[in-house]
Structure formats: structure tokens, C-alpha cells
């Protein structure tokens, strides 16, 4: 029984707090900056282990289009993290996750 509890806690800490989202742009192929750091081109899969409510600033740049700035935020309830939080309390700070996808529309110059 103790082994099962230990494995459950380890599973929650290793996998329960990670969250990922796909950042897309219309048109695709925009240069993506997260919190000012270049990450690649859209579509881009972003993942982290940040706490609930974390917000990242997204800036998209593409020739012929206005620079676009917005945010991605951990805002969807994660049921596994909620269950883990109820069982061991600590994972409650990871109870929110990113939506599966963000699509941002860029405006032509």
C-alpha cells in the first residue's frame, strides 16, 4: 500500500504539473517570441511546469504584417492535478493548464 501511495505521488509530481499548448498564427510561419525570447516559428508547441494562473507574453512577427502581441495563460482546470491536490495538497498550485491551442490572427500592413 505504501508503495502504491509513493508511486502515485511520484506520478503526480512528474506528470501532473506539465501543460502544453500549440501556438498558431494566421498566416502560419510567424516568428514567435515568448516573454521576449525567440522560440521558433508558428505553429509551435509550448510546454512548461509553471504554477496555476501563469501568463506568458506572446509576440508574433512576420514580414508584411503588423507585429502582434497577446498572452497565453494556464486557465483550464486540470482534473488529474485537482485529484492529486486533494490527495496530497501540494499539486493544487498546478490545478490549471493551458488550453490545447491558441490561434492568433495577424493583420496585414
In short:
The chain is α+β, with helices and mostly antiparallel strands.
Structural class: alpha+beta
Count of strand segments: 9
Parts with pLDDT < 50 across at least 5 consecutive residues: none
Mean pLDDT: 78
What would you note in describing this structure?
The structure is a single chain. Helix 1 packs across helix 2. It is elongated and about 65 Å long. It has two helices and nine strands; from the N terminus they run αβββββββαββ. It is 23% helix and 40% strand. Strand 2 and strand 3 form a beta hairpin. It has one domain. By secondary structure, it is an alpha+beta fold.
Show the helix and strand layout:
Elements lengths: L1 H15 L2 E8 L4 E4 L2 E5 L2 E5 L6 E7 L6 E6 L2 E2 L1 H10 L7 E2 L3 E5 L4
Parallel strand pairs: 1-9
Antiparallel strand pairs: 1-4, 2-3, 2-5, 5-6, 7-8
Helix pairs in contact: 1-2
What descriptors fit this protein?
three-stranded mixed beta sheet, 2 helices, four-stranded antiparallel beta sheet, elongated, single chain, 109 residues, alpha+beta
Amino acid at each position: 500500500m505504501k508503495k502504491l501511495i509513493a508511486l502515485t505521488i511520484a506520478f503526480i509530481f512528474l506528470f501532473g504539473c506539465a501543460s502544453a499548448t500549440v501556438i498558431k498564427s494566421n498566416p502560419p510561419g510567424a516568428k514567435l517570441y515568448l516573454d521576449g525570447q525567440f522560440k521558433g516559428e508558428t505553429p509551435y508547441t509550448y510546454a512548461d511546469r509553471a504554477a496555476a494562473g501563469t501568463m506568458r507574453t506572446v509576440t508574433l512577427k512576420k514580414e508584411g504584417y503588423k507585429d502582434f502581441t497577446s498572452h497565453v495563460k494556464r486557465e483550464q482546470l486540470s482534473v488529474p492535478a485537482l485529484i492529486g491536490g486533494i490527495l496530497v495538497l501540494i499539486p493544487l498550485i498546478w490545478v490549471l493548464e493551458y488550453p490545447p491551442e491558441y490561434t492568433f490572427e495577424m493583420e496585414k500592413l
